[in-house]
Specification:
558 residues, alpha+beta, Structural Genomics Hypothetical 15.5 Kd Protein In mrcA-pckA Intergenic Region, Chain A, Pseudouridine synthase, 3 domains, four-stranded parallel beta sheet, 28 strands
């Protein structure tokens, strides 16, 4: 014999198959157990063994329900015999037939005009009952399931919720088939063994079952091109676009979790890397640090080295007279790093196997630097897309919001970054500026300094990098501000901000490039600061694999 026997303080439930004499021996033993003397099984014949093993399990509940106080061993709803239900239906009595089975079981068949519930597991039954109309509480209801087991709990639960006329079909659908056949029933009955379904004569049907979603499948459904044995069926098959949509939804929820948990908020040990360039080959570690990271004084660096906060690539401390070599990597140990809050309201606009397109909020730095290491776009994306490490294909200031293109592989990144470097990508920004430009269309081609000043700012320099931005006034407001469209032809750091600043039209909310060509001392805004009114609203580029043009737009928010 093979099959399943479930034992619980609630009782016993079994579904076994074997020769008749072996079945009778099992029943004889079971009926010797106190309380099981009247055990009456439901029988059906099979030409083969429908089970693969014999499994005996002890369970807290015969059928998982999860509701305290429902004890079918003490009390169940009144039972209605199969022949009596048939008589009621023959007479046309006003009764509601309620199918308590899971939605995938119902697909093979049910009683005519029966009410079904949108449940994928019996634990969902209580919630489904809450959605039933109030008038059903006074109506006569006959509930049924495969063998009557689930109704042992479903009935008392519905009575506890105020349903006054509950009956349960004794022995369920299988006993009904055994005693009265197919009367008032349409289709087959799903069973939990290799037969999948039996007809009203209790004969095995040619139905199969999807390994993935558990849906029973008719012969016709098994011929569907979407049915792949062990993988998909017509009910769970998803197109590539649908799969991407599901994946995006999952990752979007993960991104939203960062609103409650910022990786860099709690103090942690941060090992900040410092790489030695050719210019500092052979100098002492103190000279290197004092020259490269000037925002920290030489005396402070000497203290950090003495406190063993400067480590080599093996994470061992180095002395003050240690000499460095070109290409080496050192670490600055920051034991209690706690980063400022950032805006994590990242919106996924598109993704496939090569590209991710997002709407980046502000303030949010893209890469690690300065006060930010974990509270960066790169770190958050790494967390969500692990083990992949997505690569931003271009720059966007921490204070600038809008569309960003992210590559999902090194190969894709090289192809997209090349487009940005060669000016093959169309980028459109909207900016709210202080003042009214006199012309509707104007261009700025002032060169921008290559080396940053204090706070990372840059300025105009004749010997700097060439830069070109095309501007268009979209609207002039009565409060003295204007909405401007900016199209950068080149891609220099802070280019739009610097060009507008030099032309006398600082961006609204700016804290670094201030009116009257003044420089501020704030690189990245605090979360509570007024936002910088600069937003990347449109990006058009070629897909790195298909080479097809892709264009994305987001609305301006100011």
């Amino acid at each position: 014999m093979k099959g399943t026997i479930l034992l619980s303080t609630e009782g016993i439930n079994l579904f076994v198959a074997g020769a008749n004499d072996k079945i009778e021996l099992l029943l004889l033993e079971l009926r010797k157990v106190p309380g099981l003397g009247g055990l009456e099984p439901k029988r059906s014949e099979s030409s083969h063994q429908p089970f693969t093993r014999m499994l005996v399990r002890i369970k807290k509940e015969i059928i998982a329900f999860g509701v305290e106080g429902i004890d079918p061993g003490k009390r169940t709803s009144p039972k209605l015999k199969a022949k009596e239900l048939k008589q009621w239906l023959d007479e046309g009595r006003p009764v509601i037939l309620l199918d308590t089975r899971n939605d995938y079981e119902v697909k093979l068949g049910s009683f005519q005009k029966a009410m079904t519930l949108p449940i994928s597991h019996f634990r969902n039954f209580p919630k489904a009952i809450e959605q039933l109309p109030a008038e059903m509480k006074e109506a006569p209801i006959v509930m049924f399931c495969t063998g009557g087991i689930r109704c042992e709990k479903a009935g008392p639960y519905m009575e506890s919720q105020g349903f006054k006329n509950i009956f349960q079909l004794e022995g369920g659908i299988l006993k009904y088939f055994e005693e009265v056949g197919s009367a008032h029933y349409q289709g087959d009955c799903f069973v939990f063994d290799q037969r999948v379904g039996v007809d009203p004569m209790l004969n095995e049907t040619p139905n199969s079952q999807c390994f993935s979603c558990l849906s029973p499948l008719t012969e016709e459904e098994q011929k569907d091109s979407r049915y792949v044995l062990g993988k998909t069926c017509p009910f769970c098959f998803k197109t590539t676009e649908e799969k991407r949509a599901v994946a995006m939804e999952v990752r979007q929820k993960k991104l939203e979790n960062f609103k409650n948990y910022l990786p860099g908020k709690l103090p942690y040990e941060n090992l900040r890397p410092i790489k030695v360039s050719k210019a500092f080959d052979g100098v002492t570690i103190l000279d290197l640090l004092s020259s490269v990271l000037k925002h920290i004084s030489r005396d402070q660096w000497e203290t950090e080295i003495g406190n063993e906060k400067i480590l080599n690539s093996d994470e061992l401390p180095v002395g003050i007279f240690h000499r460095v070599k070109s290409g080496e990597r050192y670490l600055h140990k920051l034991p209690t790093t706690s980063e400022p809050d950032v805006n994590t309201d990242i919106k996924l606009l598109y993704e496939d196997e090569s590209v991710i397109v997002i709407d980046k909020p502000a303030p949010l730095p893209v890469h690690a630097g300065g006060r930010f290491n974990r509270n960066t776009l790169q770190y958050l994306l790494n967390e969500v897309y692990a083990p992949q490490r997505p690569r931003p294909a271009h720059r966007l200031d921490a204070n600038t919001s809008g569309i960003m293109v992210i590559a999902r592989s090194r190969h894709s990144a090289s192809r997209i970054q090349t487009q940005f470097a060669n000016g093959k990508v169309e980028k459109i920004y909207h900016a709210k500026v202080q003042g009214h430009p006199p012309e509707d269309l104007f261009v700025c081609e002032l060169a921008i300094s290559e080396m940053p000043l204090e706070c990372g700012s840059r300025t105009i320099s004749e010997s700097g990098l060439s830069a070109k931005t095309e501007f268009k006034v979209l609207e002039r407001f009565l409060d003295g501000t204007s909405l401007i469209q900016a199209k950068p032809i080149t891609g220099r750091t802070n280019q739009i901000r610097i060009h507008l600043w030099q032309l006398g039209f600082s961006i609204y909310g700016e804290q670094l490039y201030l009116p009257n060509k003044r420089l501020g001392n704030t690189q990245t805004h605090a979360i509570a600061d007024p936002p910088l009114c600069l937003r990347a609203v449109k990006v058009t580029f070629s897909h790195p694999m298909t080479r097809l043009k892709m264009s994305f737009e987001v609305p301006s928010v100011f």
